[in-house]
Amino acid sequence: MEHTYQYSWIIPFIPLPVPILLGAGLLLFPTATKNLRRMWTFLSIFLLSIVMIFSLYLSIQQIFLSCIHQNVWSWTINNEFSFEFGYFIDPLTSIMSILITTVGILVLIYSDNYMSHDQGYLRFFAYMSFFNTSMLGLVTSSNLIQVYFFWELVGMCSYLLIGFWFTRPIAANACQKAFVTNRVGDFGLLLGILGLYWITGSFEFQDLFEIFNNLILNNRVNLLFLTLCAFLLFVGPIAKSAQFPLHVWLPDAMEGPTPISALIHAATMVAAGIFLVARLLPLFIVIPSIMYIISLIGIITVLLGATLALAQKDIKRGLAYSTMSQLGYMMLALGMGSYRSALFHLITHAYSKALLFLGSGSIIHSMEAIVGYSPDKSQNMILMGGLTKHVPITKTAFLVGTLSLCGIPPLACFWSKDEILNDSLLFSPIFGIIACSTAGLTAFYMFRIYLLTFEGHLNTYFINYSGKKSRSFYSISLWGKEEDKKLNRNFGLVPLLTMNNTKKASFFCNKTYKISNNVRNQTFITVENFGLNTRTFYYPHESDNTILFPMLVLLLFTLFIGAIGIPFNQEGIDFDILSKLLTPSINLLHTNSQNFVDWYEFLKNAIFSVSIALFGIFIAYCLYKPFYSSKLNLTLLNSFKKWSSKRIRWEKPINFVYNWSYNRGYIDTFFKKYLTESIRKLAKQTNFFDKRIVDGITNGVGITSFFVGEVTKYIGGSRISSYLFLYLCYVLIFLMILFFFYFEKF
Amino acid sequence: MYLVFTTNDFPWLTIIVVFPISAGSLMLFLPHRGNKVNKWYTICICILELLLTTYAFCYNFKMDDPLIQLSEDYKWINFFDFYWRLGIDGLSIGTILLTGFITTLATLAAFPVTRDSRLFHFLMLAMYSGQIGSFSSRDILLFFIMWELELIPVYLLLSMWGGKKRLYSATKFILYTAGSSIFLLIGVLGISLYGSNEPTLNLELLANQAYPVTLEILFYIGFLIAFAVKLPIIPLHTWLPDTHGEAHYSTCMLLAGILLKMGAYGLVRINMELLPHAHSMFSPWLMVVGTIQIIYAASTSPGQRNLKKRIAYSSVSHMGFIIIGIGSITDPGLNGAILQIISHGFIGAALFFLAGTSYDRIRLVYLDEMGGMAISIPKIFTMFTILSMASLALPGMSGFVAELIVFFGIITSQKYFLISKILIIFVMAIGMILTPIYLLSMSRQMFYGYKLINAKNFSFFDSGPRELFLSISILLPIIGIGIYPDFVLSLASDKVESILSNYFYG
């Protein structure tokens, strides 16, 4: 067994040959490399499966005998400083590496088909394999410098992959934005690492924790400085895991190919921040204020992500905001000190979200054939709808993912989310209420996405559809519902969406002003705008098997991965795999009840959270269920009639929330207006300063000397008398100076 | 014959210094049959020289010896004790090898030069000699002479093969550098004539000499001005963007790769080694100036429209790390500065090369007119991306290690208070955020998008084998140092310790 650990340094290096060979091949022998094409895919999948088997083996061993294995080699040897490289295997590492490899393999298989017509097929695989390498390196690193090393490499891979389609200006902007935002995080991380080194004199995790705890116990260090360092360290995860102030890059990152969004921006890289906080939790946990900051940022992100996801048109952006919100849950759990539930949610969310993204990729792939390749159209949920008929398998997979994310019992996310919600209620009632209400929001927006995409009829050919019904004018609400004019006559305004009344009620509604028959305002997009007047209609087709296979495997994961966290009653002791793995780790909230699960408590909480989720789903169902396919809504809508007197009052907040969500919480605008513009201004000003003042002095000296030369030339004028005059002047000045000195001396 | 080559008495360094310029002057006798002969002749000379240097250093240089090695001592001018005194130590071996490497590649990069190629190549070789000479001289007057020798070829290269505003920038360059050389000369003469009737020009003897504090400070300021122009340190940097913006890209490679490093080398060699007291007095100011320089140049850079000027400002910004490393007076800091010298030599040269090759194709200088080049020149795009990553200190590349060690040097420095250290590190790290902004937006403006597809004449050739070879051969050491920095660190570490020992016991 020691043997296995000894060889585990090889984990990150196994997938490394692929990017090296591919990169060299593409630069030096492009045609030969391109001819091999699929061989490279097989190779990278094969290598990654080796890693997967290896890490599976490691984690099975970890279950039976939980131990930490560490080994370091020196990287630079010097008398004054030395950096070390090594590996560090503990349960966290093995869980993360299994996660990375399983999702990685599935995404690689998926992208073989997804990217098959792309010119950069091999480039894509090179980037992907390099990403896998650096991500595995990140999770196996044994000290902070190594973490920083791979942290940046992962960020670079993300940059390259977001800008994969470099001809799209939006992608170009998005990748730069992602890199710079992540760099802000790296800035904090590096400063934090250096600060911690200054305090403790070590980069190694275990020494660091030990020294740190001693220092805190003996109170030998300035707590403010310590908190500052810990906070700076936390800035790295804030950026990487898209937490509140630095989340702006994640939705834009969806410009990359969809497999990337599944692997990097949903399952693995964004989880790196969670991983790092989990890894450094022994360090954070001794500073209560930093734990509070972590949970605060977590809860802000939870709420912000959920509210921003409400009005997204783009299916991937919607999912991205949902990812952000779920990452907020994990961060919240870590901030509360419940290490286990954070990791549990990390695992379950990774599989569910990967499934959702792959599903959305499959949808986009099908839609692209009809509406064209512009992401504005192919990812636009307004143009989708009624895909159930056309892509049944994708629909099933997507539905399972959606249900899982909503927290419906047998599926993965239920188990983990339930734990986090319980813990948050125990931790602080306010956080608990926000977290629970956001669970309802999650259910709502996920089902909004689902219903818009799969229910109803294909909106691309909506003109055709409406023609049958002989309507002169139809418009599709951005909120997903087709308005019937008859209904509109009854209600001038239809509140489309209601939130949980008991909590902070927020109503969403598309304002439907009747301005001379036209039912349109900003929330409406008329189908005619897209001008699809083709006579023959193509319908989306189900994707190929290579796309479906990874989705089905992920479906299985989503169904059963919750099992690792479910306690099994075995010989009187409650036992679950995850706790077994994470035994030595910290759990603040359940110190006593680690091995004791109160079933009554569990059921109560589960019912509570499920009912919230169901409520969210119900509302989404009511509001986005297409009218023409069901008469049920009429009764429901009639019930809205009672509110019609009140609705004016609601109009303002509804508008506000709608605009808030549509404009991404104005945060992007804020950053753009104040940060980007100020940097531009600064650049302009320094440039001006440099050109006019610093350089101006130089040029001024040059010009002055030129003029002085000219003047002397003019004065001199090659006349002996003037030379004599100047000469005499100088002599006189010299004599005067001499004279003064002479008198001073005596 | 074999014995001659292995013994220490063989004048390796003299041959290495004299060989390029003398071989270059033989070019006059070459048959006048077009440019091809000149090109290949020069490349052969460069490669031969590089091999010779490597061979000599491999067999005769001992890494663990901080003293001068391969030293040579020939009396040149009798009456003021002027010797032809050469020798290398851990500090100069890295820069000499860098010089050989970059000059060879710059000659290769200068293949498309057709106008007056004989003179061009002769000047390249003369520069080669001057640079190696100034890195390897152990005599302070010889150092000055070599320093001056090196300026003339640059001036000529700039004024004859530059862009539209070449005369302006060449004049600016020569005025700046020659003006600063006056201070260097004053310093050299002052330091050598101090305290004895016979002038002392030997650097080893000078290193052990002590001066009154005011005099030492005066000397220090004189040398500092000379090196500050070369390095450059703000506010004496304005010659650099103009020069780089106008020069042919092979000249740019030499300028960015080696010439700037001479300033840094001089700072370590003369200011640190000879004037330790003044240096420890000035070092806080150096740190402050270095930090300001990082931020200042990094925020000036995005405002540049000219592609090459933007890269030039990025080099100015990176020189800030060298200044800070030198100012920190710690072992890691100085090691980091030396590593940054080498690392930026590669990265800066490579970036200028790639900018030059893309300019050759698109014939546009201003960034806002470019766009969408990635489609037609994917290889240059790839290399440019990798190298801008290297320039923004991505881990795994040499820049990262250098910057990390410099950071580390400030942290471990005993000399400064905590608050000032925090402040300096904080500001430096802000530079870390600004760097990707200008580098990535440069690459975005040049390569991303589809702007030029519809324009006419939008068919360039991708980089051929020569250009690819060139950029890959610069890339390999960058990655090599980034993955295993001991390659370079081990060269200089003993020398660094011996320099710093003056500061703790002196």
UniProtKB/TrEMBL annotation, chain A:
Catalytic activity: a plastoquinone + NADH + (n+1) H(+)(in) = a plastoquinol + NAD(+) + n H(+)(out); a plastoquinone + NADPH + (n+1) H(+)(in) = a plastoquinol + NADP(+) + n H(+)(out)
Positions of the NADH:quinone oxidoreductase/Mrp antiporter transmembrane domain: 141-440
One GO cellular component term noted in the UniProt record for this chain: chloroplast thylakoid membrane
E.C. code: 7.1.1.-
Enzyme class: translocase
Domain NADH:ubiquinone/plastoquinone oxidoreductase chloroplast chain 5 C-terminal: 448-690
Record-level Gene Ontology MF annotations: NADH dehydrogenase (ubiquinone) activity; NADH dehydrogenase activity; quinone binding
Keyword Magnesium among UniProt keywords: no
Subcellular location: Plastid, Chloroplast thylakoid membrane
Pfam families, alphabetized: Proton_antipo_C, Proton_antipo_M, Proton_antipo_N
Membrane topology reported for the UniProt record: Multi-pass membrane protein
Keywords: Chloroplast, Membrane, NAD, NADP, Plastid, Plastoquinone, Quinone, Thylakoid, Translocase, Transmembrane, Transmembrane helix, Transport
PANTHER family: NADH-UBIQUINONE OXIDOREDUCTASE CHAIN 5
Biological function: NDH shuttles electrons from NAD(P)H:plastoquinone, via FMN and iron-sulfur (Fe-S) centers, to quinones in the photosynthetic chain and possibly in a chloroplast respiratory chain. The immediate electron acceptor for the enzyme in this species is believed to be plastoquinone. Couples the redox reaction to proton translocation, and thus conserves the redox energy in a proton gradient.
Name this polypeptide is given: NAD(P)H-quinone oxidoreductase subunit 5, chloroplastic
Record organism: Eruca vesicaria subsp. sativa (Garden rocket)
Lineage of source species: Eukaryota, Viridiplantae, Streptophyta, Embryophyta, Tracheophyta
Gene label: ndhF
Automatic annotation (TrEMBL), chain B:
EC number: 7.1.1.-
All residue ranges annotated as the NADH:quinone oxidoreductase/Mrp antiporter transmembrane domain in the record: 137-421
Entry's localization field: Plastid, Chloroplast thylakoid membrane
Catalytic activity annotation: a plastoquinone + NADH + (n+1) H(+)(in) = a plastoquinol + NAD(+) + n H(+)(out); a plastoquinone + NADPH + (n+1) H(+)(in) = a plastoquinol + NADP(+) + n H(+)(out)
Family: Belongs to the complex I subunit 4 family.
NCBIfam families named in the record: NDH_I_M (TIGR01972)
Protein name according to UniProt: NAD(P)H-quinone oxidoreductase chain 4, chloroplastic
Natural source organism: Eruca vesicaria subsp. sativa
